[in-house]
Amino acid sequence: MSEPRIALSDLSYGPEEEAALVRVVRSRWLTTGPEVDRFESEFAAFVGARHAIAVSSGTAALHLALMALGVGGGKAVVQPALNFVAAANVTRLVGATPRFVDIVGPDDPTLDPVAVIEAAEGAVGAVIVMHYGGYLCRIAEIVEICRERGIPVVEDACHAVGARYTDPRRGSLDGRMAGTLGDIGCFSFFSNKNLAVGEGGMVVTDDDGLAAAVRSLRSHGMTTLTWQRHRGHASSYDVIASGLNYRSDELRAALGRVQLQKLPGGNARRAALADRYRSELKDLSGWDVPFANYVGDSANHLMVALAPDQARRDRAAAVLREAGIQSSLHYPPIPSFAAFRDFASSVPRTDSFSARAISLPLHAGLGDEQVAEVCALIRSSSAGAR
Ligand SMILES: *Cc1c(COP(=O)(O)O)cnc(C)c1O
To test the ligand 1 pocket, which listed residue (84, 103, 197) has its Cβ within 8 A of the most ligand atoms? Predict the structure, then answer.
């Protein structure tokens, strides 16, 4: 397939990223070192967490979060059926069982707190929430439900870097950033995310014990890093648990530091474009845009619209493709995948959402006129159709 004329997402990269890479290459130190240390402390300050631990991907972040919490065999992990498959995969990799729960509805496609209450029975190792498209889920209610039952909350905040929570009840989580609302938060810096380094991620937490466990498990369960031994700060190490190599490196950390500087501006541009999409699609009969009455600062990772039905969604996608415009689906319900058939549960609101949803181009470099063109094509694809 040829390059799309209007891509779903794009990097906002420039001379600053090039300079950062040159600086690292000239330093002659590539693996975890001072750039990673700085990226971690700058990221921790940005989100307002005590600890930030840079890792090799969002998937690694989620895997380490479950390992650090000691979630393992015989435990269930309650999580949304509407998510990228990474959280469900790592649940099975630690030996636990995914328990898929429905979304609130078409206007709020995040984990339903009422369904969490029903699912939080028996041996539950963790509840994983996801802030769909960069919009915070009903996290204050979910945290309260989990605290009462002693269940830790993991945030899959991969869509939500830079999003700030507004609690409608003005509780203690009001005003905090995504990733710092549960016990442990996970971010991805994959190349299509709002903060992009290629492959990368971050774990954040206020809990010293969890942070120490993630730090050690990130690097084979060893007590010191090559950098510390290189600098003479340590000469030996012990292995205190069986870990992995999920470290970041200096090149990605240097890119991440530049991208973190650009993030507030990029997210503001995404918000303006999302507003434009919303007003263009407002009076398109039968179409909806989720989070219509959302209160709070979204990271606007995705621009999702809901067609009246699956046929008109598929027709819109075909018309856009014909015009060289990329669209996508976030996501097929996880229980519909072959590997998860044994974990199927009834999630009718997720099924209906996935049948109607289409993700439209959204990135900081997109032009207003491109939004207008996408919306005009959707309007024409839906006109007169039944
Ligand atoms: C991207 C993403 C992940 C996985 O992150 P990787 O860095 O690609 O491993 C997990 N969950 C969600 C919601 C994501 O968007």
Answer: 84
Q: Is the CB of 353 under 6 A from ligand 1?
A: no
- Alpha-carbon torsion 382, 383, 385, 386, what sign? positive
Phi, psi of 68 (to 5 degrees): -65, -35
Please, what is the Cα angle at 111 between 93 and 161, to 5 degrees?
80
Residue 235 alpha carbon to ligand 1 centre in Å: 36
Q: Whose CA is nearest to atom 6 of ligand 1?
A: 58
Neighbour-count burial for 104-136, b at 16+ CB within 10 Å, e otherwise: bebebbbbbbebbeebbeeebbbbbbbbbbbbb
Beta-carbon contacts of residue 376 (< 8 Å; ≥ 6 apart):
none
DSSP 8-state class, residue 294 = -
* Nearest-angstrom CA–CA distance, 355 and 266: 30
9 lines ligand 1 (CB under 6 A): no
* Separation between Cα atoms, residue 209 and residue 184, nearest integer Å: 11
Residue nearest to atom 3 of ligand 1 (CA): 58
Distance (angstroms) between ligand 1 centre and the Cα of 185 equals: 12
Per-residue pLDDT of the chain (386 residues; tens, 9 = 90+): 578 999 999 999 999 999 999 999 999 999 999 999 999 999 999 999 999 999 999 999 999 999 999 999 999 999 999 999 999 999 999 999 999 999 999 999 999 999 999 999 999 999 999 999 999 999 999 999 999 999 999 999 999 999 999 999 999 999 999 999 999 999 999 999 999 999 999 999 999 999 999 999 999 999 877 777 878 887 788 898 899 999 999 999 999 999 999 999 999 999 999 999 999 999 899 999 999 999 999 999 999 999 999 999 999 999 999 999 999 999 999 999 999 999 989 999 999 999 999 999 999 999 999 999 999 999 999 886 54
Is there a catalytic annotation at residue 193? Answer: yes
Nearest CA to ligand 1 atom 5: 58
- The C-alpha atoms of residue 25 and residue 147 are separated, in whole angstroms, by 46
Q: Is the pTM of this model over 0.90?
A: yes
